[in-house]
Amino acid sequence: MKIVTYNVNGIKARLPRLLEYLAEQQPDIVCLQELKSSDETFPIQEVREAGYGACWHGQKGFNGVAVLARGSDPFERQRGLEGEPEDEHSRYLECEINGLTVASIYLPNGNPQPGPKFDYKLRWIDRLSRRARELFAAEVPAILAGDYNVIPNDDDTFSVRAMASDALMQPESRAGYRALLAQGWTDALRVRNPGGGVWTFWDYQAGAWQRDAGFRIDHLLLSPAVADRLSDAGVDKEYRGREKASDHVPTWVRLR
Protein backbone atom coordinates (compact mmCIF):
# COMPACT_ATOMS: atom_id res chain seq x y z
CA MET A 1 0.00 0.00 0.00
CA LYS A 2 1.41 3.38 -1.08
CA ILE A 3 0.17 6.46 0.77
CA VAL A 4 1.16 9.89 -0.52
CA THR A 5 1.05 13.48 0.65
CA TYR A 6 1.22 16.06 -2.13
CA ASN A 7 0.91 19.85 -1.96
CA VAL A 8 -0.32 20.54 -5.50
CA ASN A 9 -0.15 24.36 -5.25
CA GLY A 10 -3.48 24.84 -7.04
CA ILE A 11 -5.40 21.78 -8.14
CA LYS A 12 -6.87 23.38 -11.26
CA ALA A 13 -3.48 24.63 -12.44
CA ARG A 14 -1.79 21.27 -11.64
CA LEU A 15 -4.63 18.92 -12.61
CA PRO A 16 -2.73 17.47 -15.61
CA ARG A 17 0.26 16.75 -13.35
CA LEU A 18 -1.96 15.19 -10.65
CA LEU A 19 -3.81 12.94 -13.10
CA GLU A 20 -0.47 11.98 -14.64
CA TYR A 21 0.87 11.05 -11.22
CA LEU A 22 -2.21 8.98 -10.35
CA ALA A 23 -1.98 7.10 -13.64
CA GLU A 24 1.75 6.43 -13.43
CA GLN A 25 2.13 5.62 -9.73
CA GLN A 26 -1.38 4.39 -8.82
CA PRO A 27 -1.03 5.24 -5.12
CA ASP A 28 -3.69 3.79 -2.84
CA ILE A 29 -4.30 6.98 -0.81
CA VAL A 30 -3.33 10.56 -1.62
CA CYS A 31 -3.56 13.53 0.75
CA LEU A 32 -3.61 16.82 -1.15
CA GLN A 33 -2.91 20.32 0.15
CA GLU A 34 -3.20 23.88 -1.12
CA LEU A 35 -6.08 23.14 -3.48
CA LYS A 36 -6.84 26.86 -3.94
CA SER A 37 -10.32 25.74 -4.97
CA SER A 38 -13.78 26.12 -3.49
CA ASP A 39 -15.80 23.01 -2.70
CA GLU A 40 -17.95 23.69 -5.76
CA THR A 41 -15.02 23.83 -8.20
CA PHE A 42 -13.12 20.77 -6.99
CA PRO A 43 -12.55 18.58 -10.10
CA ILE A 44 -14.33 15.52 -8.75
CA GLN A 45 -15.37 14.21 -12.18
CA GLU A 46 -11.76 14.06 -13.41
CA VAL A 47 -10.64 12.48 -10.14
CA ARG A 48 -13.35 9.81 -10.36
CA GLU A 49 -12.49 9.10 -13.99
CA ALA A 50 -8.93 8.46 -12.80
CA GLY A 51 -10.31 5.76 -10.49
CA TYR A 52 -10.38 7.61 -7.18
CA GLY A 53 -13.02 8.57 -4.66
CA ALA A 54 -12.47 11.76 -2.71
CA CYS A 55 -13.36 13.95 0.23
CA TRP A 56 -12.34 17.58 0.12
CA HIS A 57 -12.45 20.73 2.24
CA GLY A 58 -12.00 23.62 -0.14
CA GLN A 59 -11.52 27.36 0.07
CA LYS A 60 -11.59 29.76 -2.83
CA GLY A 61 -8.17 31.05 -3.85
CA PHE A 62 -6.00 29.51 -1.13
CA ASN A 63 -5.62 26.68 1.40
CA GLY A 64 -7.81 23.60 0.86
CA VAL A 65 -7.15 19.91 1.60
CA ALA A 66 -8.42 16.62 0.19
CA VAL A 67 -8.09 12.86 0.63
CA LEU A 68 -8.27 10.53 -2.39
CA ALA A 69 -8.67 6.74 -2.26
CA ARG A 70 -8.17 4.39 -5.18
CA GLY A 71 -11.31 2.45 -5.94
CA SER A 72 -13.29 3.62 -2.92
CA ASP A 73 -14.83 6.66 -1.26
CA PRO A 74 -13.13 7.89 1.92
CA PHE A 75 -15.42 8.29 4.93
CA GLU A 76 -15.08 11.79 6.38
CA ARG A 77 -14.45 11.82 10.14
CA GLN A 78 -13.62 15.47 10.81
CA ARG A 79 -12.95 18.72 8.99
CA GLY A 80 -11.13 21.50 10.77
CA LEU A 81 -9.63 21.52 14.26
CA GLU A 82 -11.35 22.47 17.48
CA GLY A 83 -10.15 25.28 19.71
CA GLU A 84 -10.58 28.38 17.54
CA PRO A 85 -14.19 28.66 16.26
CA GLU A 86 -13.49 31.83 14.28
CA ASP A 87 -10.80 30.09 12.20
CA GLU A 88 -12.30 29.53 8.75
CA HIS A 89 -9.14 28.31 7.00
CA SER A 90 -9.51 24.94 5.23
CA ARG A 91 -6.41 23.21 6.57
CA TYR A 92 -7.43 19.88 8.16
CA LEU A 93 -9.44 16.94 6.84
CA GLU A 94 -9.60 13.56 8.53
CA CYS A 95 -10.98 10.48 6.79
CA GLU A 96 -11.23 6.74 7.30
CA ILE A 97 -10.34 4.30 4.52
CA ASN A 98 -10.60 0.56 5.13
CA GLY A 99 -9.99 0.96 8.85
CA LEU A 100 -7.08 3.40 8.44
CA THR A 101 -7.52 6.98 9.69
CA VAL A 102 -5.75 9.49 7.44
CA ALA A 103 -5.53 13.25 7.99
CA SER A 104 -4.53 15.72 5.28
CA ILE A 105 -2.81 18.69 6.92
CA TYR A 106 -1.83 22.11 5.61
CA LEU A 107 -0.16 23.83 8.53
CA PRO A 108 0.12 27.65 8.34
CA ASN A 109 3.32 29.09 6.89
CA GLY A 110 3.72 31.70 9.62
CA ASN A 111 5.72 34.32 7.74
CA PRO A 112 6.53 37.04 8.41
CA GLN A 113 7.72 36.36 11.91
CA PRO A 114 7.38 37.62 14.53
CA GLY A 115 3.80 38.74 14.09
CA PRO A 116 0.16 37.58 14.02
CA LYS A 117 0.72 35.02 11.25
CA PHE A 118 3.44 33.33 13.27
CA ASP A 119 1.28 33.41 16.40
CA TYR A 120 -1.53 31.74 14.42
CA LYS A 121 0.89 29.07 13.22
CA LEU A 122 1.91 28.19 16.77
CA ARG A 123 -1.70 28.09 17.98
CA TRP A 124 -2.58 25.82 15.05
CA ILE A 125 0.24 23.42 15.92
CA ASP A 126 -1.10 23.25 19.47
CA ARG A 127 -4.60 22.48 18.18
CA LEU A 128 -3.22 19.77 15.89
CA SER A 129 -1.29 18.33 18.81
CA ARG A 130 -4.47 18.02 20.86
CA ARG A 131 -6.24 16.16 18.04
CA ALA A 132 -3.20 13.95 17.49
CA ARG A 133 -3.18 13.05 21.16
CA GLU A 134 -6.84 11.99 20.95
CA LEU A 135 -6.15 9.76 17.95
CA PHE A 136 -3.10 8.28 19.64
CA ALA A 137 -5.03 7.55 22.81
CA ALA A 138 -7.75 5.81 20.79
CA GLU A 139 -5.07 3.44 19.45
CA VAL A 140 -6.45 3.63 15.91
CA PRO A 141 -4.12 3.01 12.96
CA ALA A 142 -3.52 6.59 11.80
CA ILE A 143 -1.38 8.73 9.53
CA LEU A 144 -1.00 12.50 9.88
CA ALA A 145 0.15 13.51 6.40
CA GLY A 146 0.73 16.88 4.86
CA ASP A 147 2.62 20.10 4.40
CA TYR A 148 3.64 20.99 7.94
CA ASN A 149 5.61 24.09 6.96
CA VAL A 150 8.25 23.04 9.50
CA ILE A 151 11.87 22.17 8.74
CA PRO A 152 12.51 19.83 11.70
CA ASN A 153 16.32 19.57 11.62
CA ASP A 154 19.30 21.48 10.29
CA ASP A 155 20.03 18.69 7.80
CA ASP A 156 16.50 19.03 6.38
CA THR A 157 17.49 22.18 4.48
CA PHE A 158 20.03 23.08 1.81
CA SER A 159 21.18 26.07 3.89
CA VAL A 160 20.64 26.77 7.57
CA ARG A 161 21.89 30.32 7.02
CA ALA A 162 19.41 31.03 4.21
CA MET A 163 16.45 29.79 6.27
CA ALA A 164 17.53 31.05 9.69
CA SER A 165 14.97 33.86 9.95
CA ASP A 166 12.13 31.95 8.26
CA ALA A 167 9.07 30.88 10.26
CA LEU A 168 9.59 27.31 9.01
CA MET A 169 12.76 26.91 11.05
CA GLN A 170 12.15 28.91 14.22
CA PRO A 171 12.74 27.16 17.56
CA GLU A 172 9.04 27.48 18.41
CA SER A 173 8.00 25.79 15.14
CA ARG A 174 10.44 22.97 15.69
CA ALA A 175 9.36 22.57 19.30
CA GLY A 176 5.74 22.15 18.18
CA TYR A 177 6.76 19.45 15.72
CA ARG A 178 8.91 17.67 18.31
CA ALA A 179 5.97 17.72 20.72
CA LEU A 180 3.98 15.70 18.17
CA LEU A 181 6.76 13.15 17.86
CA ALA A 182 7.04 12.97 21.63
CA GLN A 183 3.48 11.63 21.76
CA GLY A 184 4.80 8.53 19.99
CA TRP A 185 4.29 9.31 16.29
CA THR A 186 6.95 8.14 13.82
CA ASP A 187 8.37 10.54 11.21
CA ALA A 188 8.50 7.98 8.39
CA LEU A 189 10.80 9.82 6.00
CA ARG A 190 13.26 10.59 8.80
CA VAL A 191 13.33 6.97 9.93
CA ARG A 192 14.20 5.85 6.41
CA ASN A 193 16.69 8.69 5.87
CA PRO A 194 18.25 9.38 9.28
CA GLY A 195 21.07 11.45 7.76
CA GLY A 196 18.69 14.00 6.26
CA GLY A 197 19.40 15.59 2.90
CA VAL A 198 16.03 14.63 1.40
CA TRP A 199 13.99 17.57 0.11
CA THR A 200 10.25 17.78 -0.60
CA PHE A 201 10.08 21.44 -1.71
CA TRP A 202 12.05 23.67 -4.10
CA ASP A 203 11.03 27.31 -4.50
CA TYR A 204 10.22 28.71 -7.94
CA GLN A 205 12.64 31.60 -7.30
CA ALA A 206 16.39 31.91 -7.84
CA GLY A 207 16.80 28.63 -9.68
CA ALA A 208 16.19 26.61 -6.52
CA TRP A 209 15.28 23.43 -8.41
CA GLN A 210 18.26 23.68 -10.74
CA ARG A 211 20.60 24.23 -7.75
CA ASP A 212 18.88 21.55 -5.66
CA ALA A 213 18.32 24.24 -3.03
CA GLY A 214 15.38 22.60 -1.29
CA PHE A 215 14.17 21.57 2.12
CA ARG A 216 11.89 19.05 3.83
CA ILE A 217 8.51 20.31 5.04
CA ASP A 218 6.13 17.54 3.88
CA HIS A 219 5.84 14.82 6.49
CA LEU A 220 3.96 11.60 7.20
CA LEU A 221 3.62 10.80 10.90
CA LEU A 222 2.60 7.23 11.70
CA SER A 223 0.87 5.83 14.77
CA PRO A 224 2.53 2.73 16.28
CA ALA A 225 0.18 0.28 14.55
CA VAL A 226 1.05 1.83 11.18
CA ALA A 227 4.75 2.27 11.91
CA ASP A 228 4.97 -1.48 12.52
CA ARG A 229 3.91 -2.00 8.90
CA LEU A 230 6.32 0.55 7.38
CA SER A 231 8.42 -0.97 4.60
CA ASP A 232 9.71 2.18 2.89
CA ALA A 233 9.35 5.95 2.58
CA GLY A 234 10.61 8.44 0.03
CA VAL A 235 9.89 11.23 -2.44
CA ASP A 236 9.00 11.07 -6.13
CA LYS A 237 11.52 13.78 -6.92
CA GLU A 238 11.41 13.68 -10.70
CA TYR A 239 7.88 15.14 -10.76
CA ARG A 240 9.30 18.51 -9.66
CA GLY A 241 11.14 18.78 -12.96
CA ARG A 242 8.07 18.39 -15.16
CA GLU A 243 6.34 21.20 -17.02
CA LYS A 244 4.20 23.46 -14.80
CA ALA A 245 4.96 21.31 -11.77
CA SER A 246 4.09 22.10 -8.18
CA ASP A 247 6.94 23.42 -6.04
CA HIS A 248 6.41 20.35 -3.80
CA VAL A 249 6.91 16.70 -4.76
CA PRO A 250 4.80 13.70 -3.77
CA THR A 251 6.12 12.30 -0.50
CA TRP A 252 5.13 8.77 0.40
CA VAL A 253 5.19 5.74 2.64
CA ARG A 254 4.77 2.15 1.65
CA LEU A 255 3.11 -0.20 4.13
CA ARG A 256 3.08 -3.98 4.30
TrEMBL record:
List the Pfam families.
Exo_endo_phos
Output the Gene Ontology terms for molecular function: DNA binding; double-stranded DNA 3'-5' DNA exonuclease activity; endonuclease activity; metal ion binding
The residues forming a coiled coil are none
Ranges for the Endonuclease/exonuclease/phosphatase domain? Answer: 4-248
Q: How is the cofactor bound?
A: Probably binds two magnesium or manganese ions per subunit.
Q: Which top EC class is named for this enzyme in its record?
A: hydrolase
A biological-process GO annotation: DNA repair
Entry similarity comment: Belongs to the DNA repair enzymes AP/ExoA family.
What is the protein name for this chain?
Exodeoxyribonuclease III
